[in-house]
Amino acid sequence: DAGVTQSPTHLIKTRGQHVTLRCSPISGHKSVSWYQQVLGQGPQFIFQYYEKEERGRGNFPDRFSARQFPNYSSELNVNALLLGDSALYLCASSLSGTSGYNEQFFGPGTRLTVL
Amino acid sequence: AQSVSQHNHHVILSEAASLELGCNYSYGGTVNLFWYVQYPGQHLQLLLKYFSGDPLVKGIKGFEAEFIKSKFSFNLRKPSVQWSDTAEYFCAVNFGNAGNMLTFGGGTRLMVKP
Predict the structure, then answer these.
(1) CA separation (Å) from B11 to A35, A40, A59?
(2) Does the beta-carbon distance from A48 to B100 stay under 8 Å?
(3) pLDDT at residue A34 tops 80
(4) Handedness of CA A78, A84, A89, A95 (dihedral sign)
(5) φ and ψ at B80, to 5 degrees?
(6) Residue B3 — very low, low, confident or very high, per pLDDT cuts 50/70/90?
(7) DSSP helix/strand/coil, B17
(8) Is residue B110 within 8 Å of residue B85, measured between CB atoms?
């Protein structure tokens, strides 16, 4: 079975630009979460979507937005990129999104570099 | 504020040495606890998890962890490490009032010398 897939693998942008990152969950999983992992730190929660609705949002500015599509894939959008947005962006999927009893499966991540 | 801390940022061990990585969290309510591992060049993988029941849980590759509620701790252990255990280890906590959101510790980078 295919795991969580993310695209692109790597991305280089300049300050002020916009970026869209994509995630496809494991088949049958209806919840997708996004995390930001800055070099040398643990992943930090950005968003969770379940059944196409936002179920949780971390402490990130409004420049960050996301959505989930009817096929449960998801996009993370970041506007007006700053140097500090350089990080590995991780997508995780789980069967359900309503409790913490669901194991989350992580994708390989998208490495974003902002110059 | 709810937080997770891993006190050891870098650990260097020789093969066959025993391993214990600390993880503490700050929250008085119900928690679900996880340890993830990130091998070089690979994505995060679940080592083990604790939801309820026996506080000593066993995971993959010979790892185990013990939940001590009174100490708000969930330490990871392995009796004898191998060179292939070289990786970064993350403790993650789902706080009971936070849906399925995970709060991660800062990670511990383990290097095992052959």
Answers:
(1) 25, 14, 30
(2) yes
(3) yes
(4) negative
(5) -150, 110
(6) very high
(7) coil
(8) yes
Paired with B114 in beta bridges are: none
For A104, the closest of B95, B96, B100 (CB atoms) is: B100
Residue A98 · residue A36 · CB < 8 Å: no
Query: Is the pLDDT higher at B97 or at B88?
Result: B88
- Kindly report the average pLDDT of chain A as a whole number: 94
Q: Which residue has the tokens 């194991």?
A: A103
Name the β-bridge partners of A57: A47
Q: What is the C-alpha to C-alpha distance for residues A110 and A89, in angstroms, rounded to an integer?
A: 5
- Which candidate from B99, B103, B107 shows the least CB-CB separation from A48? B99
Interface test with B, best of A24, A49, A90, A99 (most B CBs within 10 A): A99
Q: What is the pLDDT of residue A1?
A: 60
